[in-house]
Amino acid sequence: MSKKAFSELQKRMKNAKCYADYKDAAEAHDELSGAEEWKATEACKDYDYQAIRSRVERMRRAKSNNDATDLMYIIHEGLHGNLGNIAAPALNGNALIGTKHLIEEFIQEVCGALDFIYQADEIDFYEKLSFFNETTHAFGRSCIMLSGGAGLGFFHAGVIKALVEQDVLPDVISGASAGSIVAALVGTRTNEELLEMLTPEVIYAGFNKWLKWQGFGKEGLFDSTNLENALIELFDLTTFEEAYKRTGRHMTITVSAADLHQYSRLLNAKTSPNAIITQAVRASCALPIVFSPVQLKAKNQAGDIVPYIPNRRFADGSIMADLPFDRLARIYGVNHSIVSQINPLSTFVKVSMKRDASSFLELSKRYVSKLTKINSIYAFDVLEGIVGHKKAKLGIQKLRSIVDQQYLGNINILPTLTADNIKQLAFNPTLEGLTELFKSGERATWPQLDVIKRSTIISKTLRKHLNSLEEKEAELLKNKSALEVINE
Prior knowledge:
alpha/beta; 21 helices; 11 strands; globular
């Protein structure tokens, strides 16, 4: 195939104005490159194609026999997100759009089987409810985590816009530092409202002067008044519980303690339902030295605004919990993560992701990297034990946390850093700069959309049916209670 044809398609993908244009060019590229032939060939060393084919045929036989009970057995037998290694990263590198047809076939059959079971009249209602409850819990779900990154934070807005437009936005989301602003927008707005708000013009109107220099000798170099006013305009006195009841999204904001012997906190509708989102986001954005730490606020039972966790103040969430996957897993049962990572270190992360993970050189580099990380943590622990000054101890503790964190997920959406957008790390945004950040976020998401769809569609189908059954159960119980009252 001619280099000119490939070059033209790559140019079309790079300059695509929307996902549909990108997808058309990517599919044409797959046709030219031979990727379509690879997709159609079932046999492959990277996954257990024989086991997947067997399951597809078993589900089809059960459906053709109208045997919902057998379908339930087949799914109970071993449904998980990486059955037969179908989620192996190696399977995502051979084509720009799609993967092995057999894998896509399997996912479609599973979703069809779940629809079939949900609609089956011969299955007792409570048996059906139990099946979806147990299977949903066992299968898990995806989350999306938005990292810190100062003025680059609105890259996340482009990412979220692309996910909302394709209806693949997970309902568990976390945000740290600048990422907390976009996470809070997601947690307090419906999809329709998000698409209206996630524009450069709207964001510029609220945040064009969020950095206001106030000088040395104070808790922060910058006055946070403009930032606080923008956050109040967006979130007012809404609590995490009120936001969840409105949108059904599990939104988490991470904050770090501003003193010793305290760990980071995850603020959400489960851990801190009455905490006010505005103050949580303001705290998460409080990068030490740049902004002063924050006293959190909450609504009490009378609706009054009161201090939350009195005598404690909180600061930048990315310092200690940029991507709090382990704790989200405990709270919400997530076992798969999508990361929008704009931390400046993502430049190095992106380079490492392109290397051959199986090569001797790459394995050696990763081993040395792990050793370096372990030794650095050890050095910080020793240093903290030697140093007696309280503020110095706190600084060492924060640096240790930065080194000790994991900055990648299962699917990673990373920006292409340029001199122009790096400047936005420490300056007030311009409308032109925000427009480019939004576009950058969307374009970085498009190549991942197909993988995200495959990774989330089964859990979305499970939760859709579980939610519907739970609503029916609530209605049944309500009617039963009403009948009992009448009979009395």
